[in-house]
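Both lines are quoted verbatim for reference:

——
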Amino acid sequence: MKVFVTGASGWIGSATVAELLADGHEVTGLVRSEASADRLRSAGATPLAGDLDDLDSIRRGAAGADAVIHLANKHDWSDPANSNRAERASVETIAETLLGSDRPFLFASGVAFAPGRVVTEDDRDTPSGPDAPRGGSEALAMDYAERGVHSVSLRFAPTVHGAGDHGFIAQIVRAARERGVSGYIGDGTNRWPAVHVVDAARLVARALGSAPAGSVVHAVAEEGVPARDIAEAIGSGLGLRVESIEPDRAVEHFGWIGRFFALDLPASSAATRARFGWAPTAPTLLEDLAGGSYFAA
């Protein structure tokens, strides 16, 4: 199968490309730089120059593919409105290109927002419209499932971890190093779902050939890791004391990630595991932290 991947050189994207190539697919990846293009060529894939603002390149990549996996996102936390607009525009461009073809369109999303209870694949991500988080892209893409687009939502845990991660956990580690203390917010009992990047990539590759149109896939290996346990593992790795941070000081201590680190967001992947026979085998989040890669100089 010819597969077009946006974000092909990114954190989840590069791991996914490796899995797709191992499965015998022909991969074309959207890349923003020549360095990324070189890495993609070395892996055995074909680069296509462009970014999320280059809708012509996205359209061209989708038109020439048997399936599209959309993993790119600006993740500009200083200007979320811009990230949301770009996400919505790219999803709409891909869906319009695939309209009526029944070709698979797998796209990255996050677990549904329902703080305090365990969300499942049956929970719908209700925000819609260009001003919604991620530009309401899940609702938009799912609307196209009734118009001949084989849309599949890939909901990733907030923490997709592993050696080389520069996402949420890396930001929390950075805050601990800069502040000289490893913190958690409040009593630290709030839970964060997690998945190793290798397990996530394997699930994406598996879902490509078997996820029904309009379905939701949960890339969640751990239902919820308590924030205090995360802070204690970071404190141990950096040799720092661990302490509670008052909620009103969360952003001051952690930076922008402080707005999220206090949330209780447990999520289940029971239906995903049963449907796809997916059994995560890579290290857990706390095992990854104990391994030391997050604390390398």
Notes: Residues 162-193+223-269+281-287 form a domain with the UDP-galactose 4-epimerase; domain 1 fold (CATH 3.90.25).
